[in-house]
Amino acid sequence: MNIRIHVVEILGELADVFDRLDQKSVEQFLVQLLKTRKIFLVGSGRSKRMAQAFALRLMQLGLPAAVAGESTTGHAGRNDMLIAVSGSGQTPSVAAIAARAKKDGARLAVFTNSQHSPLARMANNLIYLAADGGRQYGGSLFEQSFLLLADAIAMELQHRGGLSDQALDRAHTNLE
User: What mean pLDDT is reported for the chain?
Assistant: First the structure.
């Protein structure tokens, strides 16, 4: 077995996803994100784990971010944004939270692999990750794509904010 072969294949699949990424939709998302009072993230399964990682990075960038469903999440409403991460775009729990956030006046940004899904139709900002196909199991390619894009967005926010790595270090947990 040669793990390197699998890694190269995965990297090729990721490159294909990012070759098809609409940069304009990401820029529109960034503009709205920077106008947002509070940021909430939601996902299910592995997508939730990727959303949690993005929430952590946003917090380290000084942005008020929380993960939906946690006891300290707080209220989402007008001038807030919910970021929904769902490959299928139809996970019932994610769709229900998104509908509630929109009803209460929050903007909805959706990262999905399904442009015509119920979540995509609700979105104020839609970021389509063309992570269909590939040889990896299940939603792996979508989840990897979202995590890489989230890290790239964090790098861009750090750059735009003129934040040093040391500034982010100061927001890193000291209670581990």
Answer: 95
